[in-house]
Amino acid sequence: MKSKLVSNQQIQHIKSKGISFNYISEEDAKKYLEYIKDHINNVNKMFELYFIPLLERDFICPFISDEEFKDAIRKCSINIPDHDLSKFGEEEFDGYREKYYPTSMEKADSDFQRKVDERSEEAWIHHYNNNPHHPAYWVNNENNIETINDMDLEYIIEMICDWGSFSLKKGDITELPNWYKNKAYEEKEHMTDNTKHTVEWIIEN
């Protein structure tokens, strides 16, 4: 008997967070479900490897106290097991899967292809509006005036774990500062100077 891609316990946990979720058993959805689970596991591994050990050391930073940083790590330890759970929900799952893991029939459907980018964009907007570890979550647009707010420290930590998970998967966690410096253009557009300063200090020390 094959094991479920998402266990009953995981399904109940997802539902307890208010996420509408239908168990997907179709072959076409398996690769994307496996990708989500692998990503969440790597984010949690990154947190355990990079941040949990800092609870046992003095954190010396010119603008964040040791107590404040360790409190943020503890808060993040509560949030991070639920990292990206919204990707299992109906508002995001199909939009992302159709974009990155389309079936052969979907690829051949010209009408479907025209709608893919629109659906994936809707999924992305829902995702960042419901996940504070994305800088775009902290951007307010009222009366056509954009205001960018500082990110809370616990979500900066989760964001760094999110980014670092891809380096961890490649087996080279040292590439993270380089990626941030040379490729994180969109992320930095949605950050205040304070947030960027904090991110840069953490990943470079």
Explain this structure:
The protein has 10 helices and 2 strands; from the N terminus they run ααααααββαααα. The chain is mainly α and 205 residues long. Strands 1-2 form a two-stranded antiparallel sheet. Strand 1 (139-142) and strand 2 (145-148) form a beta hairpin. Helix 3 (66-79) packs across helix 7. The chain is globular. It starts with 7 loop residues before the first helix and ends with a helix.
Features:
205 residues; mainly alpha; two-stranded antiparallel sheet; 10 helices; 60% helix
In short:
With 205 residues, the protein is mostly helical. The protein contains 10 helices and 2 strands, in the order ααααααββαααα. Helices cover 60% and strands 4% of the residues.
- Which sequence of strands runs across the widest sheet? 1-2
Q: Estimate percent helicity.
A: 55-70%
SSE string, helix = H, strand = E? HHHHHHEEHHHH
The major beta sheet can be summarized as:
2 strands, antiparallel
How far apart are the first and last residues' alpha carbons, in Å?
48 Å
Helix and strand composition category: mainly alpha
**Tertiary shape:** globular
* Stretches with pLDDT under 50, minimum 5 residues: 21-25
Strand content bin? under 5%
Oligomeric state of this protein: single chain
The counted number of beta strands is 2
Q: What is the average of the pLDDT values?
A: 87
Number of helices: 10
Rg (C-alpha, Å): 18 Å
